[in-house]
Amino acid sequence: MTALPPLAVTIGDPAGIGPEIILKAWMAREAASLRPFFVTHGAEILEAAAQACDIDCPVIGIDGPEDARSAYRDGLPVWRRSERQYTPGKPHVSGARLAYKSLGQAIEYAFHGAASAVVTAPVSKSAIAEVDSDFIGQTELLAQSLRLPLEHSVMMLAGPTLRTVPMTVHCAIADVPALLTQDLIVERTRIVARALQTDFGITNPRIAIAGLNPHAGEDGRMGTEEIEVIAPAIARLRGEGIDASGPHPADTLFAPHKRGTYDVAIAMYHDQALVPLKALDFDQGVNVTLGLPIVRTSPDHGTAFDIAGKGIARPDAMIAAIRMAGEIAERRANG
């Protein structure tokens, strides 16, 4: 492995399963070949979570990312204590503040090159909205923090058997048709194509684009977005040399015999992309943000407050997110 800076992992909502799966990821670091990582904020919470969940993971306080690599051999490196009590399953606004602060610090470290990537543990959007009323999601906050237009920040969900991208994300279904434009589809698909090449090593990515309506509109009988918006966008992309196909009916696009025909499926809205990914790869699904100057991944699941602190949360998706962040960081460093 190239000697890159360590990865910065956020604490997430401390009342959720984030602390537990971070600890378990460190325990699996050698078997999973994970690059060194450290956590921003919450040392005392991680210590309490280790005790509550019976995880034999020492927590080592560090003064900065430069100390993480040496500490990583002996325990989980954590920058800064926060003096907040560990209350699994009982979210509180103080925990949301901590999650928000941890995310901001990780972004700063990555932006300035002290961390090679950011891996975000799950947060409660509604809880953080009490801290920042403009908060929509971690993907959007990353774009805002890096002063990028929201349309340049693209969420991709990646698992062992499927990659999907929702064209629109955290909005009401009723708002989706008006948000879909040719320019949006073209710009975001360009970002996806570039990222598959630079971050995933796919030289000529095949991109399947779903329709919005049942049966992809069935020649306008079930909606005209495919004719007026999606198909013209695909034609523009193909004219630029991007291997884009569609609009495909979403009800067949994710069938086993179809998944081998593309490298990523682009859906028109949140659940159209996330339902198949979570049905197929829930325990290993990774949320990776494309189009950013920094690397960011996250496990593709929520806070799971109902099982927090019980020691039963599976760390597979967190392990996959940390591994993917390290792989992308290395590709970018060597590119």
Describe this structure in words.
By secondary structure, the chain is of the alpha/beta class. It has two domains: 1-148 and 292-335, Isopropylmalate Dehydrogenase (3-Layer(aba) Sandwich); 151-291, Isopropylmalate Dehydrogenase (3-Layer(aba) Sandwich). It contains 13 helices and twelve strands. It has helices at residues 18-27, 43-52, 68-72, 93-111, 125-129, 138-145, 176-179, 182-198, 225-239, 250-253, 256-259, 270-281, 316-334; strands at 7-10, 37-40, 59-62, 76-79, 118-119, 154-158, 163-166, 206-210, 243-248, 264-267, 286-290, 296-299. A twelve-stranded mixed sheet has the order 3-4-2-1-5-12-11-6-7-10-8-9, with helices on both faces. Strand 3 (59-62), helix 3 (68-72) and strand 4 form a beta-alpha-beta unit. Helix 8 packs across helix 9 (225-239). It starts with 6 loop residues before the first strand and ends with a helix. The model has no long low-confidence stretch (mean pLDDT 94).
